[in-house]
Design a protein that fits this description.
alpha+beta; Anticodon-bd; histidine-tRNA ligase activity; BirA Bifunctional Protein, domain 2; Rossmann fold; 18 strands; 8-stranded mixed sheet
Length: about 500
């Protein structure tokens, strides 16, 4: 007697998720809205593959034989390492460099698709998630940066989030000036400082102070090593982070707040040339923001630094400002759903001359979750196909003819292909498919040249008021008959009324 084969448990790997038709439809509608705004601003679509040569994503490479820290990698038969893309920016840099001679400059494009992170998954943190990016490559002026912030603000407004978000802008050059003044010159130490400031919303000023010093121990006892700065070095950095807090009576995001913040930052950068250049860029950007009527929606916030190393100038985050409850039941601000900035050095990895670039990235999955919370995105099941029921197995050709007629008229339709012995199960199947109607033709209807159409939506509404089973059978709610030749017209009328 042979041992039964062991069944495989049907389960997903950690950090991945399935999506239902309703979720796909809801997110699709959101993506269409984002796309229309991007195209209104003059951006065109481009698509890059999921896999890139690993050296293309070089900034994430660990110093190991198998480059799998941060990215999912595999080796081709020619011993070339390939990796699933970590974001949509590095592939764009490769695409632009590879097609440099034929592309218009500046090059304005948008891209949408999944990215992959080989990191520890957690609540709301996935290893596969969708991004929707737009980038301008080949434009070095602050106008290109300001346009990104305006476009993202328009996206949020179009999605129904007006008054519930803010686009927070800063410039990495200003922070570089503060770090230079504080005597912080090591690239590794600078990166640790960036990551510490990036945790301000999560840990607060005291937590940042610990991360700038020896380090911070969390509630579980895990210790994160800090930047190792002295108290004298920490002081100007904390003053920098605090510089965006408006004075009493000054509205955050107003022109007065921008001017006051820039003046405060000017006192923290010392004689740094990079810091001064950053402040001049911010002044230009917010002059454009004000002139375009985006003040208040786009604000200056020095605490925004972005963790990625490739940002070289202005950076931003789109933060949703309404409160939600975290896993501990505490009220917290929903947080960032998009970000981006200037990355003038990334394409230089492929070409000798510097190529300026700036871009934005919207986290589609996270934004969709926010829209559900605000009632601006409903994961409703899409309308299913009209189902032609099979009453007589020897009449399959006739039922199929009905399906063909409906499809030719542009109507979703299918013939029931399961076990046809039970009429109730056929109707139940159509219900599960969210079908608007079923077509019924038995021998009696065929002899009379008619068909029965059961409006499943009207039937459900009518049946809700009927409590007696016999009454329900006699009433046949939502069911009516038409001539066989009027099938398409009758279904078209029913769908338009629904």
């Amino acid at each position: 007697m042979t041992e039964k084969a062991k069944l495989i448990a049907p389960r997903l790997p950690r950090g991945f998720e399935d999506r239902t038709p309703g979720e796909i439809a809801a997110v699709g509608a959101m993506i269409d809205t984002i796309r229309k705004v991007y195209e209104r601003y003059g951006f065109d679509p481009v698509e890059t593959p999921l896999l890139e040569l690993t050296e293309t994503l070089g900034k994430f490479l660990p110093d190991t034989d198998r480059p799998n820290a941060g990215v999912f990698s595999l080796q081709d038969d020619d011993e070339q390492w390939m990796s699933l893309r970590y974001d949509l920016t590095a592939p764009l840099a490769r695409y632009f460099a590879e097609n440099f001679e034929t592309l218009p400059k500046p090059y304005r494009s948008y891209r949408q698709g999944y990215v992959f992170r080989n990191e520890k998954p957690g609540p709301g943190r996935f290893r596969q998630f969708m991004q929707f990016d737009a980038d301008t490559v080949g434009a070095g002026g602050p106008e290109a940066d300001a346009e990104m912030y305006m476009m993202v603000a328009d996206v949020m407004d179009e999605l129904g989030l007006k008054g519930q978000y803010v686009v927070k802008v800063n410039n990495r050059k200003v922070l570089d000036g503060v770090l230079d003044t504080a005597g912080i010159t090591s690239d590794g130490q600078k990166l640790t400082v960036l990551r510490a400031i990036d945790k301000l919303d999560k840990f607060g000023p005291e937590g940042v102070k610990l991360l700038l010093g020896a380090g911070r121990k969390d509630e579980s006892g895990d210790f994160t090593k800090g930047a190792g700065l002295t108290p004298a070095q920490i002081e100007p950095i904390l003053a920098y982070v605090d510089s965006g807090v408006p004075a009493p009576g000054v509205e955050k995001g107003s022109n007065a707040h921008v001017i006051a913040t820039i003046n405060t930052l000017a006192g923290l950068i010392g004689g740094s040339e990079a810091g001064l250049q950053g402040l001049q860029e911010l002044a230009s950007i917010f002059g454009l923001i004000s002139a375009a009527g985006f003040s208040g929606r786009v604000i200056l916030d020095p605490s925004v630094v972005r963790g990625l190393e490739y940002y070289t100038g202005p950076v931003f985050e789109v933060e949703l400002t309404f409160k939600v409850q975290n896993e501990k039941g505490q009220d917290v601000v929903f947080g960032a759903v998009g970000s981006g900035g200037r990355y003038d050095g990334l394409i230089a990895r492929f070409r000798r001359e510097p190529v300026p670039a700036t871009g934005c990235s919207i986290g589609v999955s996270r934004l969709a979750h926010a829209l559900k919370l605000t009632g601006n995105l409903k994961a409703t099941e899409p309308v299913g196909p009209v189902v032609v029921l099979v009453m007589d197995k020897d009449q399959m050709a006739g039922y199929q003819a009905m399906v063909v007629e409906l499809r030719k008229a542009g109507i979703r339709a299918e013939m029931f292909l399961g076990n046809t012995k039970n009429f109730g199960k056929q109707v139940s199947y159509a219900d599960k498919r969210n079908s608007p109607a079923v077509i019924i033709e038995g021998s009696q209807e065929r002899d009379q040249g008619i068909i029965q159409i059961k409006d499943l939506i009207a039937g459900k509404e009518a049946a809700a008021a009927i409590t007696d089973n016999a009454e329900w059978k006699a009433a046949r709610p939502g069911q009516f008959e038409v001539k066989r030749g009027d099938l398409v017209a009758a279904i078209q009328k029913l769908l338009s009324e629904q």
